[in-house]
Amino acid sequence: MSALWPFVNVFAKQLGISSMETGLIFGAAPVVATIAKPLFGAIGDRFKKKKIIFLFFILLNLISCACMAFLEQKRPGRPVIFKCTYAGTSIRQCGSVNAHCNESIIDTFKTIKRNTSDLVSPPTALFNQAPAEIDGSRFEECYVECEIHSFAHGVKFCSSILGNNAPGVCGLWGCRDNFASEYDSHSEHQHGSYSDEEDYSDPSLYLQPTILQFSVQLKIWDAIFLPGLHGDVAKNCLILPVETVAFEGESGRAGLSCLNSSILPYCFIDCPNNPALNSHLERVVEHVDVYGSVNFWLYGTLIIFSFVAMAVVASTGDALCFQLLGDKPQYYGSQRLYGAIGWGLFALISGFLIDTVSGTKLLKDYTPAFYLMAGMLVLDLVVSYKWDVKEFDKPKSLRRNVSTLLTDLRIIVFIAACIIIGMCTGLQWNFLMWHVEILAEEGEENCDVHDTRVKTLQGLLSAVQCFVGELPFFYLSGWFIKKLGQIHCITMVLGVFGVRFILYSVIKNPWMLLPVEVLQGLTFGVFYSAMTSYANKVSPTGTSATVQGIFGAAFEGLGVAGGSLVGGLMFNAYGGAQAFLIFGCGAFVFAVLHCLIMFALNQSSSYRGVQLGIRETEGQEMHQITASNLEVDSE
Asked: Whole-angstrom Cα distance, residue 625 to residue 540?
C-alpha cells in the first residue's frame, strides 16, 4: 500500500478537491472503520473465519485503489480574480510563493524574448473590433473568461461600473441604475455591508454560471507582489494592473473603473505572448461546487472502501499473528517490523518513479504508484492464501466477556488515550505530505526552477519513518514495554507527538523534516506494539479479534477520523504550520493529563489491590490484572 497511500491525499488536489474536503473524507472513512473493525472481528471470532475475512478485505482494497486510477484529473488552469475599483482594475492571484522570489519572478515577465511578428491579437470573431496595437514592452495582451455564479453578484458588478464600458450581459439583467439601488438596499438589509469575499461560497447562490469574456491589456511593468490573506492564511499576491478592457461583442476598448470595489472571483486568464507569465499563473483548480462534483463522491467512496479494508486487514492480521505467537507475544514487534520495511522501501521507490515519469509537468503522473500497488497486493493475496493458521474455538459468551472488559476504568482511560494519539496520527498521515508540498513551493531557493523532487522527498520521508524510525523501534518495543509498561509508553508517545508537531510548525525547509521523522519510531512503532499487546493481554479467551478491533477502532476510527476532520478544517483556515503547532501543544496537555489520571487511579483505594479475572490471549495461562500490574509479563 505504501506505493500509493502516502500520496493519496495530495492526489486529491489533482482531482480538484481542497484540503478541507479531503479532511472531511478522511474524517468519515475512519468512522466507518470504527464499525467495521469490531464487527468483522466478532464475525471472525464467532464463526472462526478470520483468514477468509483477511483475504476478502485484501481483495477489496486492491479493487478500490485500482479504481482511483480512472478518476478524471483536473486540467491545469490559470485562475485569477478580476477586481474593479474607483482607481482602476487589476488581475490578481494569491499563492504560496516565497517573498524572496518576487522580483525574480516579475523580471521573467518583463524580459521575455519574443518575435513581435508572432504576437497574438484578440480574435475578431470573439471581439467585434480591430486588433489593438500592442506595445510589447509595456502592455501584455491577455484574454479573460469569468464565471458569474449568482444573479446578485452579477448585478453588483454591473451597477458599480462607471461610464459606458459595461459588458452587454448587463443589459440582459435590466437597467443598471434601478438594480443598483435595489441591490444596495437588499444587501444592506441582509448583510449590513458588502465585502470582497461575501457569500461567494453560499451554495444557495449557485446558478448555471454566466460566462463573461473579455480581453485586457496588462501594465506588465507595474506588476507587484503584495501580502494578502486567504481566510486567515497569509498569501503572497501577484497584482497585475489593467490598462484597458474590451468586452466580448463590444466595439470599444477603454479603461474600466467602478464606484464601489467589485470583484469577479472565478476567472481564468491566458496570455499567449508571455509563456513565463502563463507558467507562473498555472494552478490545479479546485471545484467551485466541490460537493456537486462526481470526483468528490467517487474519490470519497473509494477512500472509505480502501480505508475500511486496510483497517479490518490490520486488526484481523494482528489477531492471527498473536495466535501464531502463542505464549511469546513479546515477539510481535519483531514480526511487525517487516511491514515497516515494505512500507519504507516502496514509498521511496514509488516517489522516485513518480518524479521521474512526471518531469517538470504541473500534474504528477501517479501511474507507477498504481502499478506497484496492484502488483504487490496481488502477491499479498497469493502469500496470504498459503498462510496456514489455526482457529481457536469460539467463546461461550463473547458479549459478556467483552462487556466485562470494558467496565474497567483503567482500560477506558487507555482507550481514550489511544483516541488522542489517533487524532495526532490522523493529522500526520493525511496532511504532512500536503504541508511538505506547501513548504516546497514557499521555500524554493532557486526562483527560476520549480523543485521537481517533491515526490522523491515525500518518499524519503516515508523511508526514514520506516527504516530509521519504525524498524529499530518495533524491534525494541518489547524492551520499552518491559521497562516502562504500556501505560507509561502511552504517556511518552503523547509527549513525543508534541515535540514532533512543534518542530513541523517551525521548520521552513522541507528537507530538514527528514531527521524529525526518526520520532516515528516512538509515535507509531512503540505505540502500536503497546496498544496491540495490551489488547492481546486483556482479551478473554476466544475474543482476540474482537478486542483488537475495539482498540483499533478507537485509534483509527475515532482518533484518526477526528484528527483528519479537525486537522482539515484547521489546515484550510490557518495553514499547516499553525495546525501542527496547535496539535503539538494539545499533545503535551494530554500527556500531562494522562499521567495524572493514571497516577490518581493507582492511588485510589477503590483500585488498589482489585483484581479482574480476565484471561490473557488465546493459548496463554490465566492472568490476573491488578492496579499495580498492567504491564507486559517479563517473559
From this structure: 12
Could you list the mean pLDDT of each consecutive 10-residue stretch along the chain, which spans 635 residues?
90 83 85 85 84 94 95 83 88 73 76 50 43 56 87 80 76 50 40 39 53 89 75 69 84 80 88 85 71 88 94 86 80 82 90 87 88 96 88 61 73 90 92 86 56 80 90 88 89 96 93 94 92 82 74 84 87 88 95 90 56 35 31 34
Query: At 234, is the secondary structure helix, strand, or coil?
Result: strand
Is residue 593 within 8 A of residue 497, CB to CB? The reply is no
Cβ neighbours for 526, distance < 8 A, ≥ 6 positions apart: 473, 476, 477, 480, 481, 489, 492, 493
SS (H, E, C) 64-108: HHHHHCCCCCCCEECEEEEEEECCEEEEEEEECCCHHHHHHHHHH
> What does DSSP assign to residue 216?
E
Parallel/antiparallel/unpaired status of strands 262-270 and 283-284: unpaired
- Spatial distance between the Cα atoms of 252 and 250, rounded to a whole number of angstroms: 6
Give the rounded distance of the alpha carbon of 106 from its chain centre: 31
* pTM metric for this prediction: 0.65
What gap in Å lies between CA 266 and CA 287, rounded to an integer?
Answer: 11
CB 231 within 8 A of CB 201: no
Question: Distance between CA 369 and CA 2 in Å, rounded?
Answer: 9
Neighbours of 232 (CB within 10 A): 11
Residue 527, pLDDT score: 94
The per-residue DSSP string of 599-617 comes to HHHHH-TTTTT-EEEEE-S
- In 10 A of CB 354, how many CB atoms? 22
CA dist., res. 106 & res. 237, Å (int): 12
DSSP-based three-state secondary structure for 532: helix
Which residues 6+ apart lie within 8 Å of 64 measured at CB?
A: 302, 303, 305, 306, 309
SS3 percent helix, strand, coil of the chain, rounded to 5, is 60, 15, 25
Tell me which DSSP letter residue 444 carries. -
SS3 542: coil
CA distances to 111, 326, 464, 536 from 479, rounded to whole Å, are 64, 19, 22, 17
Q: Where are the beta strands (DSSP E) in 248-372?
A: 262-270, 283-284
| CA 621 vs CA 538, 583, 611: distances in Å | 12, 41, 16
Contacts of 107 (CB under 8 A, 6+ apart): none
Query: Residue 348 corresponds to which cell in the numbers above?
Result: 521511496
Cell numbers describing residue 191: 448583510
Q: How many residues does the chain have?
A: 635
> What is the C-alpha to C-alpha distance for residues 245 and 253, in angstroms, rounded to an integer?
6
CA distance 84 to 161: 8
**Residue 26 backbone phi and psi in degrees, to 5:** -80, -5
Q: Residue 55 and residue 309: Cα distance in Å, rounded? A: 10
CA gap 259, 261 in Å, rounded: 7
Q: d(Cα 569, Cα 563) in Å, to the nearest integer?
A: 10
- Beta strands 233-247 and 88-95 are antiparallel
